[in-house]
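Ticket #4471: structure export looks truncated?
Reporter: QA, pipeline team
Priority: medium

Steps to reproduce: submit the single chain below to the structure queue and open the exported record.
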Amino acid sequence: AAQRRVLLLGEGNFSFAASLGGDAGTSVVATCYESEEEVSAQGRAVENIQRLRERGAEVMFSVDCTRLKDYFFPAKREFDCIYFNFPHCGRKAGVVKNRELLSHFFHSCAEVLTEEGEIHVALCNGQGGTPADQPRREWHNSWQIVAVAAGAGFILSNVQPFKAETIHGYKCTGYRSQDKSFCIEGALNHIFTRSMPLAYFKPMICEIELESRRISFQVPQVLVDKINRGFLEVNSNHPVQTVKEKLTAVLSQAFPLQSIDYCLSLLFQGHLNGVCHSNIFWIVLSPEETPSTEEMASGRANAILFSHVDFYRDTDDNVQEGCQIAKQYCLRPSLLPHAQAVIKSAAFVPGTLYVFSGPVFRKCLISPYSMPVFHEMVFVCAVNRGTENSCIEMLVDKIKNSIHSLHQTVSGFPLTISLQKATCSETTELNDFAAFESQLSKVQYFLCMEVDTLDSSEKCSCVGVIRTAPYELASSDFVIVSASLNLDLIAMLLCGIQDWRMLWTSDTRFLRQFPRGELRLFKSFSLYPPSYVHDVSFWVPDGEQFDEAAFHTIARQVSGEMVASIQLIDSFHQSETGRKSLCYRVAFQSCDKALSRREAVAMQLLCREELKQRLHVALR
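Actual output as written to the record:
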């Protein structure tokens, strides 16, 4: 095996380097900023340097941590771990100077660190500016280490106490550029790793078979990285697949079960009664793309290109435009229409539990637990009238057993699953999933999960709905019982995942935490990510209702899902003109990637421009 290469910077008297064990599998390069002559004047430095050299370590002097690649040949630049204990510009340098030092240091590290390498930075209590500091300094008075590191593409992956008393022979030095110790009580070691780069996706054309024809459509840009991810494939170890497999296995013991996943179209044609149009991703065949009569007759129109319409408004203008449009589609917001189609088919057998699963797409407001795409699982069964309640009881009981079985492998917090009768008042108190399901068709019961974790903002959440409906194609002796589950939300609550975006991360450190077929309590690999807050205010077009879901969708798209929250902070009516002004606070924050202040500013500027162009607002 290749030797692990460790680089130590700013060593001062080299006591920390000397304290490291002489592991035969580790190659150590210990450096300091001062010259050999200056270092030799410090207590025990000469002795420590001698010990290091006897162990085969390389000792270097006058090394500037902001220009690391200059000191090593290309073949010797790859370090697995870089240590920098108590960096400081010297003398009475303030927080701004020390932030600049760290910024240059991290950019320099990016040139000499391996892809899987770590950077360890020890700081005095309060300097880092993270919640791990106790007490925590005000942000402007700290070194803002996480934001500074993000500028060079690094994320904070761990924080540990720096226990100097456990490091044999270690003596901190360099206070105000003297051979004196810093106050290191409560000091913290910050461990950084490389982040995945911010992704900018090209437009995607998706091609599917629909009504015996080949249909191509442009995927909404905000969903480009969410299409065809394969989380529900047979060999997937993604948490949503684990939840699906457990539910299928347990329910198959109680019902004859038939899974129908292979023929479910991504597109749905027609109107969904009761569903707000602003929650739908519309796909419309543009008039200029409509095939001519000659093309239709010759069969040359078998490939039709559909375009994505960002914001559909149900107005007279759209109705008139609709006369020119052949057909209108949307990305499926639910699998329930697919289930209803199977119910109406001759192959539908009462008593069999039909199972449908796959991703569904819904525009929604930005929040940690509201998802524009998630994996839905729908169960449908026809039972004899009068037995529907016992069927519901058995179905819910098996779903509960499945979830509790998965929870046994996740330790750390209690879990309660309850069935709530649907009432008008409850739908407003539940989540976006429950509200949309209530619009889609009448709901009899909400299936809710309650978790008791110290840091979870989502203590109780609706994860499923139960419905009953008459079986219209047969005698009145049968009733249809159906259940719709949000697999993503179940997985989040079971694993303690605080942000839906983490389920879709491309960082391999996420899936590595989940063995095949098992769930684990998720440990974030990006701690205390920096948040950058920007306000945007504008005049709304006269006579129009502002589409907040459209605004949130624009923010998602231009930032690549880097917006954590949007809050309305001010609304103003100008009495003289009747105009309305809105002011929103937008917080840019990534849950899995390094996001720098400069990148957040660029996203804010692009968001402003897109709002003006696509929602026709007048920026203030």
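Status: closed, not a bug. The export was complete when the record was re-opened. Leaving a note from the reviewer for reference: The mean pLDDT is 87.
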